[in-house]
Amino acid sequence: MAALLDVKNLGISFGGLRAVNGFDISIGKEELYGLIGPNGAGKTTVFNLLTGVYKPDTGKVILDGQDITGKKTIDISKAGIARTFQNIRLFSKLSVLDNVKVGLHNKHHYSTVEGILRLPGYRKIEKEMNEQAMELLEVFGLADHADYLASNLPYGQQRRLEIARALATEPKLLLLDEPAAGMNPNETGELMEMIQFVREKFHMTILLIEHDMKLVGGICEKLTVLNFGEVLAQGDTSSVLNDPQVITAYLGE
């Protein structure tokens, strides 16, 4: 399987503390991959390195053959990485439709003058964006709520909206940071189905951080386990979850 994401020797220090050290990962196209580990292991730091929030001290990040190491967040987004967050970050005072349109601005542009004067170029692009946003909302079962404020959606639907907005940027790689956080078992089951649906519908490569081992074991094909900023184990899901070192360090005796 051709690697979509290839990361070698990634590392970063904060004030003398080595938060991530020698991190390697290779994810094939359309793979559903999990990144797990104890709290404070460095998982979200890895996501921040991959998305340009932090610049690594060492290592390389190659996305679909392109070196994106240390690039700005906006450039990495345009290169093809989108993410969601553990704590949902929607534009709460914007409508559901407008939240998705924010993601579409990666691909659609008009000048300030066109926007202010509502010139034909602006109207054409706005029409295209409305249509594309509604198509995504339809896919995620949110079309009937397009005019709602994002903050008025139930929690599970806010998660759907956040993923829809991320997909609006047309990414090659989707990063999900603890998507099941705060969900009850029924919502988690629906989330598992949705993640699998997104992978199949959009031919998406997905890397997720998650503490829910039922979700991880149910959908992830491969896992990497982080412990104290370093890779503890890596491989197919069943082998990793049954690794004695992983059980001791993370899952408990």
Radius of gyration over alpha carbons?
A: 19 Å
What is the topology, as strand order, of the major beta sheet? 6-7-8-3-9-10
Beta-strand percent range = 15-25%
Percent of residues in helices comes to 40-55%
**Poorly predicted tracts of residues:** none
Structural class: alpha/beta
Distance between the termini: 35 Å
Mean pLDDT: 90
The number of helical segments is 10
SSE arrangement, N to C? EEEHEEHEHHHHEHEHEEHH
**Can you count the beta strands?**
10
Described by the principal axes of the CA atoms, the overall outline is globular
Tag the structure with descriptive keywords.
6-stranded mixed sheet, alpha/beta, 40% helix, 253 residues, single chain, 4-stranded antiparallel sheet
Can you give a write-up of this model?
The protein is of the alpha/beta class and 253 residues long. The strands form 2 sheets. Strands 6-7-8-3-9-10 form a 6-stranded mixed sheet, sandwiched between helices. A hairpin with a 2-residue loop joins strand 1 and strand 2. Helix 3 packs parallel to helix 6. The protein is globular, with a radius of gyration of 19 Å.
Question: Brief description of this entry?
Answer:
The protein is built from 10 helices and 10 strands.
Question: Layout of SSEs?
Answer:
Blueprint: E1 3-14, E2 17-28, E3 32-36, H1 43-50, E4 58-63, E5 66-67, H2 73-79, E6 81-83, H3 96-104, H4 112-117, H5 120-139, H6 155-168, E7 173-177, H7 185-202, E8 205-209, H8 213-219, E9 222-227, E10 230-236, H9 237-241, H10 244-251
Parallel strand pairs: 3-8, 3-9, 6-7, 7-8
Antiparallel strand pairs: 1-2, 1-4, 4-5, 9-10
